[in-house]
Each structure stands twice: as structure tokens, then as C-alpha cells.
Amino acid sequence: MILTHVEERVGRIRLNRPKALHALTHAMCDAVLTALEDWRDDPAVEAVLIDHAEGRGFCAGGDIRMIADSSAGDGAAARAFFAAEYRMNHRLFTYAKPTIAVMDGVVMGGGVGLSQPCDFRVATENSRFAMPETAIGLFPDVGGGWYLSRLPGRIGQYLALTGARLDGAEMIALGLATHYLPSDRVEEAKRWITGDPQATATILSDLSITPPDAAILSRREAIDRLFASDVLEEILSALEADDDDWAREQLTTLRQRAPLSCKVSLKLLLDGATMPTFEDEMRQEYAVATRIVQRPDIVEGVRAVIVDKDHAPRWNPATPDAVSDHMIDRIFAPLDAADEWHPE
After folding, report:
1. Alpha-carbon span 208 to 202, nearest angstrom
2. In whole numbers, what is the pLDDT of the chain averaged over residues?
């Protein structure tokens, strides 16, 4: 499910789980970690390039069914997956050699965690970025609290709560991608980079084109105004009071999302904006993840969206006012030293 090899002077990591849109499993995270470790001190490898192999790409997230199945039991497999995935995210974030992610396709959840730490992040007209976790009872993890909280204005909060999708042009405008290439030039870019990885910046700049206008920027004023609060009920009230079709669409969307997940997401971004280090971010996200998978929403969310596909989840708690501050504080409380996440 992960293909790794060295091509000229570049370590290649290729996601190869096409029937699942290359969604990450525990074994895939371990394979990426092993490759990164093998190449870290290898002078023959000057850079690492991450893309997908056959089928559509890039990466549609993580192994959601496994997480839900584990959550229905003791949660051990889910916790082990998150621990490995977050180590992979952190390893990429701190990797000394240049890293390149080619995001020619869907970039959701785990795919965000795999691509955003990279130095070079290539988007195309096929790119679709989203963190839709609140729709299945989870939250935007894999560093989402770090990345989304650093987007302009309140766009991060909007994306975290609604799971709205961005195209490649919007990814460029928000800094989620560094270069915009036509998809038919991607293979050319890879060939040039493998031959001369030290020239990656120049190669990508030379092959880049000007992206279309970023549609999300036309909504910037509305997003900043309507999603201004870190309190979910206040965001819902602002949307209810706004006489605009777009605001009504967002309100409809939020009423379908898990209230607990939405409040966790807002707290995650609030904390993430001032988190001292990415390691601290991942340690907190792991603590949150271990508590979330012990709650019923993930099982219900996966049932409603992926298994039965009735899109009628019965969340628990069912309403925002039933999610108390005490409940959120308990979810965010640090784990005991023996249980907390470590990068190695």
C-alpha cells in the first residue's frame, strides 16, 4: 500500500491504495516512517517526494472504518493508529531534507497531515482540500489545530466546522499549497526534481502557472464576520440572524454536524494558534483523539455517512447546549505520563 524507492537522488514515497483513494492505514504510516528514517542520514538521498501511484489521488484521509470498529470496542487499535500517524506527521514537520508533496487529487484528513508539513506542496486543477471530520464525529486532527488556526481571518474555523472543500486555486491563495501546476505537467516536474532535487524551487516555479481566482476570497468578509466567535452557539446565532442564502447554507450544514466535534474543533484552533511547538500540538491532539474514540459519535457518524449512507446521524450529545464546558475540559485534559504521545 506504500511504494518506496530511491530514484536518482530522491526518495520516493507513493501511496498505493487506489480503491480507498489511498486512505492511510496503520501499516502505511509505519512504512512512511521507516522510509524517512532510512533516508534521514543517507547522503545519496537529497530530498523526499510524496505522491500517489495508480488511480485517483492524493489521499482521502485515514482508515475511518477501522477507527469506528475500534471505537465500538476498547479503542486500542484506533489509539495505536493515531499514535503512529501523528509520529509520521511530526517526522515530516521536522525532517531536515527537503520534502515535496504532489497533491494532484483529493487531500482530506490524513492527506492533509501528510502534505502540509512538506516544504513544497504542489496543487493542480484536480486538487480538492477538506477536513470534513465533524461530519463523522471526529475533529480536524493530524495537525489541523496548528495549520487551520494559522489561515487568514476566520477561514480556519469555517473550514474546521463545515468541512468545506477548497480547490487548487484556493489552496494557493491560503498558503496551503506553494505551487500551482497543470496536471499534465506534474510528471515532468517529478522527472526534473529527481534529476536535480537542489533545484526543486526553481523547477516548480518555472512549471507553475497563474491559478484561477480563488472563490473563497470573495466570501472573506462574511466568513470573518459570521465565524468570528470561538463559541459555537454564537456562530449559529450569527448565521441565523443573517438574511443571506450562503449563510443559510452554512447554518444547514452546521446543524448536521456533531455538536461535540464542532466544539472540540473550535477549542483545538483556539489553543493551536498559540501552541509553542508542533510536538505540543500533536501531544494535545492525541489526548483529544483518545477521548473522542471512547465516545459514541464516531460509530454513529461512520454508520450514517459511510455504512448506511442515510446521512441522518443521531449525535450524542444531540445539541450544542448539551455539550458542557466541563465535557470539553475533560476531553482536552493532558494524559497521564505513561499514556501520552511522544514523537519517537
Report:
1. 10
2. 97
Residues 283-322: tens digit of each pLDDT:
999 999 999 999 999 999 999 998 899 989 999 999 999 9
Query: Which residues make beta-bridge pairs with 107?
Result: 59, 129
Terminal alpha carbon distance of the chain: 23
In the set 63, 141, 170, 285, the catalytic residue is 141
Residue 133 among the catalytic residues: yes
Q: In 324-342, which positions are buried (b, 16+ CB within 10 angstroms) versus exposed (e)? A: eeebbeebbeeeeeeeebe
Active-site residue, 38 included: no
| Peptide bond between residue 58 and the one before it cis (omega within 30 degrees of 0) | yes
pLDDT at 137 (0 to 100): 96
pLDDT tens for residues 214-272?
Answer: 999 999 999 999 999 999 999 999 999 998 999 999 999 999 999 999 999 999 999 99
Residue 93: the pLDDT is 98
110 is an active site residue? yes
pTM value surpassing 0.90 = yes
Phi, psi (rounded to 5 degrees) for 62 = -115, -175
CB neighbour list of residue 15: distance below 8 Å, 6 or more residues apart: 1, 2, 22, 24, 28, 50, 51, 52, 53, 57, 58, 59
Of residues 115, 119, 117, the one with CA closest to residue 103: 115
The answer to whether the beta carbons of residues 269 and 278 sit under 8 Å apart is no
Catalytic residue among 11, 61, 62, 301: 62
| 329 catalytically annotated | no
